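Hi there. Long-time user, first ticket. I'm pasting a complex I've been working with (about 728 residues overall). I'd like to know whether the download I got is complete or cut off, because the file seemed smaller than I expected. Thanks.
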Amino acid sequence: MYTSKVSVWVEIMDHQKAGVVLHNATIKAVAKDAGVSVATVSRVINSNCKVSAELVEAVNKSIAKLNYYPNTVARSLKFDSTLSIGLIISDISNSFFCFLARTIEDVIHGDNYNMIVCSTDNQQDKELSYLRLLLGKKVDGIIINTTGMNDELITSVSHVLPVVLCGRKIHSPSFHGDFVDSDNEAGSYTLTRHLIEHGHRRIAIVNGQRIFSSAAERLAGFARAMKTIGIAVDEGYPYLFEGNFTDSNSGTLAAKALLSLPAPPTAIIAMNNELAAGVLRYCHDRGIHIPQDLSICSYGKIFNNDLLYVQPSYVTMDPTLLGHKIASFMLERIAGKNQHSNREMRLDAHLVKGTGVSAPASPD
Amino acid sequence: MYTSKVSVWVEIMDHQKAGVVLHNATIKAVAKDAGVSVATVSRVINSNCKVSAELVEAVNKSIAKLNYYPNTVARSLKFDSTLSIGLIISDISNSFFCFLARTIEDVIHGDNYNMIVCSTDNQQDKELSYLRLLLGKKVDGIIINTTGMNDELITSVSHVLPVVLCGRKIHSPSFHGDFVDSDNEAGSYTLTRHLIEHGHRRIAIVNGQRIFSSAAERLAGFARAMKTIGIAVDEGYPYLFEGNFTDSNSGTLAAKALLSLPAPPTAIIAMNNELAAGVLRYCHDRGIHIPQDLSICSYGKIFNNDLLYVQPSYVTMDPTLLGHKIASFMLERIAGKNQHSNREMRLDAHLVKGTGVSAPASPD
DNA sequence: TTGTACGCGTTATCAT
DNA sequence: ATGATAACGCGTACAA
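Hi, the file is complete. Here it is re-exported in full:
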């Protein structure tokens, strides 16, 4: 099996600390120096076979002398496994994905896996290009927050490689992999009901593109909540803004558009942290008082939320929890050789009330 | 030479969009199917040699039929180059490093390089472990914000691989690589003078560990500025707190300690964004009014700065600018075969005044 | 226990 | 122009 020989590495590298030259020595060089065959060296390194004590000694001496360390690329070629997994997300500079990436890195590092990070900016061609690259690089698995525009290819990939989706679902029945996300519909429902209970009726929603399952589900939860007060959210609903999840500026534009309406909303729900920051930025710059003039909610916590000039109410979407689940699924799939049936994991989104919500100034 | 054959990939992968099975076909299988030798297939793929039109046709047909794509691992073995670079930083979940990572990714992706992200948490053993891993994986270069505790090894690595340092210098004369950072001394001087000009005298500094060159330089700039008003900053200086750059909580502890002193400071300079957020958090929770009770400055912008309840003055440290420079240096070194002499690039840190600074309530 | 030889998927060198 | 074959560095049957 293809495991990582940490103990050997430690032994090897300890000798390299004192500023010695790294020769890029090969196993052959070590064998020659120690006067043994490459097979013996290999056995010493991987310690999976019996080697006499004196030869072990000699080999280790040569390893230290030559500052030898194994070439992982060659091993990968042999085992068709690289001990690295690809992470394809829309944008690593988004605080949510930062924490997600960090958590995933931590978990998989425990199993000696590395992480190749790829940011797509939600562009189909970038995603495609990265998928190709990772496929060619023979990563052992792919974690992907997909753009939703390469479903067929990803489905194909899922037949040959462990795939864990995050945040955006693939509906193809032949897709083979796991899915982890927040419980979008319920979370959005909770958030909307929170506003309704404060007396709001003209509630606006600033969403991401509906081609993303998360956006669609959050819209559905919103609609279900609005239905409880007899308001139908359909194509004609006036307070619906579809922006871009990865661009807080689209939240700013949304706020501007919504608040310019003849009968502006008394509350806005931004469907992720980026959009929420954008909405907040608009209100801050324009001197719109929150919550007096407008109540604001966010799906997921805004970074540095507790230090903001006002705290929107939000439902939790903890990237650490998500990351742990995602990484675990991935490692399980790799270990089980991708034989699991599709799994779906939804994380609870519970309400955290903030100072950004109050009763509307002029209820209808 | 080892280049990436993008055009070929496009051609190859276009046929895979419709949910076909990815067989992991090899060049041998393609050769067999097309009735040619593997050499010919290789030539068609890399189009570096003349092949007759009909054979090109046949090979491409087989490639499409078998959904063949090249195994990068095998190529890497041949070329001793993987088209990937390692990024070793203290913590990818820190907003500053997020933006840095994103920028670097963008730039190197243009040259078809990938990025393996490694977070060390400023721990020596983690850094060591990641260095080993990247070395074994035969990355083409390493960008590192080092812990400062593996200088000898990194120096060794720099003799065999392009290395670009970021934020933390290695002083060994035999180190071979580039260094990019903010102009720490000058930036810190600017920030301190800003407070002095507002009338502050009891100015506290919340710094990272001085083993990091950035922390040492910022301390030096602070000391130089204080000297202009005849205050010596030495080991006996009472308003010196050494915390942890990567842990905002240590900023909170610092604020608590400093403000509990008999003659508390009238201003605090936090030497990075994390520490500043921690200081701010303490003040916010304790109801300490800023800037009335205390003025606050930060080296680098706090994330979502414009939405905070108060805006510390800060000097710029743009991760995007830094990232561009770092990535460029790396690509140049890779292209030039590591033959450059050591380069050092300092980015200007200019002052942005915020609402978090005013004259002290009770000047001495 | 130890060594020889082959194969992993490619590319490059030599023949033809 | 095309094909056979030797490398790249490693692990492991198989032989000894």
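A couple of notes from our side: Residues 36-40, 43, 49-52, 55, 74, 76-80 of chain A lie near DNA strand C (CB under 10 Å from a C1'). DSSP finds 13 helices and twelve strands in chain A.
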